[in-house]
Amino acid sequence: MVELLILLIKLFVVFNLIMGLASICTWIERKGSALIQDRVGANRAGAFVETDNILLKPVFYVLRVLGMLGIINTLVNDGVKALTKEDFVPEGVSNFMHSLAPFLAVFPVFVAFALLPFAPDFTVSGYHIRAQVAPLDAGLLFIFAMGSMAVYGVALAGWTGNNKFSLLGGLRAAAQMISYELAMGVTFVTVIITYGTLDLYEIVERQQYGLGILATITQPISFIILFVVGMAETKRGPFDLPESESELVAGYFTEYSGMKFLLFWLGEFAEIALFAAIIVLLFFGGWKIPFVELPAGSWLSALIGHAVLMGKILFFCVLQIVLRWTLPRFRYDQLMHLGWKILLPLSMVNLVVAAALKVL
Amino acid sequence: MTYIFLLLALVMVASALAVVTLHNPLHSALALILNLLTVAALFAALDAHFLAAVQIIVYAGAIMVLVVFLLMLLNIKTEKPKPMGKFLFVLSAAVGVSFLALCIPAFNEAFRIFPDPVHELEGTVKAMGRILYTEYVFPFEAASVLILAAIVGAVMLAKRSYSKGSGHGSN
Asked: Is A145's Cβ below 8 Å from some Cβ in B?
């Protein structure tokens, strides 16, 4: 009974973690892109609220600050707008398939989050708790499996759009994700060989000083490959050909509006957070602080570890967003060239080197 | 465990039926993906997590992505069901009934014993790897040679059509 309760609490926490990370990423994208492009960005909603009630004055002051920072705009207004918008379904498309696509795009990302550990183990009143919804032996493989499921959402969205732009966007997305998945799989194998385990918790524990990236000479290369692949798999940054607005209107989600469109958005930002989390867990020691040893088992050190992990994840989220707003879009042949002729051979060589280092 | 198995089996059979009865090829492909995912879920319910992950990666991930990709690329239209001739109907009914009769003994056996979860260590990656590289090392290596032959064959076919094709195509 208590185990079930613990599991439900874990589910609740992880679900809110995804939502929180996704909304923070949305806000950073909104305001950060304004900062990068020398604009002001969202600063109106809630910025002018006034009251005469002396008790409510502090509350309204906070609201004004939040409004000026654009937080109310991104978190409240966008959601309300999406919920109240007309839900448009193109002609000649089954409503079921059209609604299925956004769910298929979001579902694998959420499942993958269930496999990530979010804090070191701790003990609360006799119960040993691992901050991971599904502590699986084959954790990393399952994340890869979920990554390969993410293609269907965008492919189906492109197909149910029932027009050429959507279809082209869906095809581009599918081709891009298949191409970069190969390098991702090989690099995952490299990391697995380096650490000798697939269990993500165990991988973090095996990183000395929390600096897994310096464990062997193959690790920095694996990190670079995984980071590039992560940006390509989220279909953002210089890899946003599937939704390139100057050619394809909006790509695979051209025909989506309202909440379904927001689901695609949510999935995209959750995927950014997912790849940031994977990179932090594999290469940057997860919840470990370099050269600082926290006492194991207490809930306080688990909380500190969780905060450290979140800080690292947010850093990589911001890095991805900054890169997205900095770099120009690739040409399609450059994209394929990078995936098949540079990243894949590089990851293969990396794998051989890692295996040789392990045997020697 | 039994209830989970029954539920999964129900979804599995329903999606398998949907694969053959749906007229739109893409709908059939999606039903097939659901079917393969349920098989993976069954593996996971039996504590064989490694097999479940591989089932998703190889079948539901890699192979079905190619199928869906091709269906989208070729833009195959919905199939019109053709009226079946009397002879064909009798023939297919006979084949179906005889296959079912063949299956009944096997079903009898299968329904009497519900599968138990594997021993805790048997489902782990380590145990799987050990078995693959000791007991089943010959089939394992033979399968990899077979896959290599398929890759070489695919490259050969692709290259041949390129060199013969005149005009555009810069390879």
From this structure: yes
Helix (H) or strand (E) holding A128: strand A127-129
**Which of A107, A152, A164, A181 would best serve as a mutation to test chain B binding (most B beta carbons within 10 A)?**
A152
* One domain for residues A16 and A52: no
Domain ranges, residue A57: 42-84
> In the prediction, which pLDDT does B111 show?
64
Q: Identify the sign of the CA torsion A253, A259, A263, A266.
A: positive
Q: CA torsion angle for A205, A210, A213, A217 (degrees, to 10)? A: -80
Q: How many domains does chain A have?
A: 2
- Same domain membership, residue A346 and residue A283: yes
A48 in the same domain as A28: no
CA distance A174 to chain B (A): 7
Give yes or no: residues A106 and A71 share one domain: no
Residue A156 contacts B where some CB pair is shorter than 8 Å: yes
Contact call for A137 and B124, based on CB within 8 A = yes
Q: Which helix (H) or strand (E) holds A334?
A: helix A332-337
CB contact under 8 A, B69 and A158: no
What SS3 class is residue B117?
coil
CB B44 within 8 A of CB B59: no
Domain borders along chain B are 2-135
Q: Does A136 touch chain B (CB under 8 A)?
A: yes
Instruction: Give the single-character DSSP code of A292.
Output: B
Are A156 and A79 members of one domain? Answer: no
- A136 in the same domain as A120: yes
Report CB contact under 8 Å: A149, B61: yes
The chain B residue lying nearest A101, using CA atoms, is B30
ipTM, two decimals: 0.78
- Whole-number Å distance between alpha carbons of A153 and A170: 9
Q: Which residues pair with A129 in a beta bridge?
A: A122
3-state secondary structure of A288: coil
* Residue A194 and residue A160 in one domain: yes
**Cα–Cα–Cα angle for A163, A78, A174, rounded to 5 degrees:** 35
Size of interface A-B (CB pairs under 8 A): 73
**360 residues of chain A, pLDDT tens digit each:** 788 888 888 889 888 888 888 888 888 888 888 888 888 877 777 777 777 777 787 888 888 888 777 788 878 888 888 888 887 777 777 788 888 888 888 888 988 888 888 888 777 777 777 888 888 778 888 888 888 888 888 888 888 877 888 888 888 888 888 888 888 989 999 988 888 888 888 888 888 776 777 777 788 889 999 999 988 888 887 888 777 777 777 777 777 887 888 888 888 888 899 999 999 988 888 788 887 777 777 788 888 888 888 999 999 999 988 888 888 888 888 888 888 888 999 999 999 998 888 888
Measure CB to CB from residue B73 to each of A137, A148, A171 and give the nearest one. Answer: A171
Which residues of chain A are within 8 Å of residue B33 when distances are taken between CB atoms?
A: 152
**φ and ψ at residue A256, rounded to 5 degrees:** -110, 140
Same structural domain, A15 and A79: no
Class of the domain covering B2-135: mainly alpha
